Amino acid sequence: MANRYFTVSWDQLHRDARALAWRLLDKGPFQGVVAITRGGLIPAAIIARELDCRVIETVSVVTYDEESMGKPQVVKAPVAAGDGTGWLLIDDLVDTGTTAKIVRALLPGAHFATIYAKPAAKPLVDSFVTEVSQDTWILFPWDTEVQFVPPIAKGGVTPA
Ligand SMILES: O=P(O)(O)OC[C@H]1O[C@H](OP(=O)(O)OP(=O)(O)O)[C@H](O)[C@@H]1O
Ligand code: HPA
Ligand SMILES: [Mg+2]
């Protein structure tokens, strides 16, 4: 369970995605990028632009929380990437590693990179930029909006 938040702005996301692209420069060239939808789409677009890569494939896995007892479902398999050799696989983050394990099994040859990584799944990633503790929930700009907060003296609370 998350007990803190790490808020990522569009600017920060762009900077961190570019930092990842720098790290990936000497791991390529890649014949294409596979984005893990949906969270990997925007990071993949930024990184593909920086690496001058125009071929983008997608893979989609829907995972369910423990309460629903459902099995993760691959709702869109990658078509063009073979076993992943020569391809760059991108997601926004790894957390428990459930998504990463499934996608790695589909594309064992790919170089797997994420912007953020939590400790439980760090060993599953080949490249990442920032480690975030397991109990921190990352708030991405596409999931949030800016809103008014009352002054501290009037009860405003700034999340840690
Ligand atoms: O390591 P895990 O515990 O599997 O969590 C990481 C995954 O969870 C989020 O995707 P989510 O399944 O919420 O779907 P989305 O990308 O469509 O938002 C995130 O984008 C990663 O893909
Ligand atoms: O920390 C997170 N933030 C957003 N989505 C996620 N999906 C798994 N972990 C996270
Ligand atoms: Mg995702």
How would you portray this structure in words?
By secondary structure, the protein is an alpha/beta fold. It has a single domain, classed as Rossmann fold. 21% of the residues lie in helices and 26% in strands. It contains 3 helices and 8 strands; from the N terminus they run βαβαβββαβββ. It has helices spanning 10-24, 41-50, 98-106; strands at residues 4-7, 32-37, 56-62, 73-76, 87-94, 111-117, 130-131, 136-139. It starts with a strand and ends in a 21-residue tail after the last strand. The mean pLDDT is 94. 1-O-pyrophosphono-5-O-phosphono-alpha-D-ribofuranose is lined by residues 36-39, 63, 91-100, 121.
Which helices and strands appear, and what pairs or packs with what?
Layout: E1 4-7, H1 10-24, E2 32-37, H2 41-50, E3 56-62, E4 73-76, E5 87-94, H3 98-106, E6 111-117, E7 130-131, E8 136-139
Parallel strand pairs: 1-8, 2-3, 2-5, 5-6, 6-7
Antiparallel strand pairs: 3-4
Helix pairs in contact: 1-2
This protein binds 1-O-pyrophosphono-5-O-phosphono-alpha-D-ribofuranose (PRP), hypoxanthine and magnesium ion (MG).
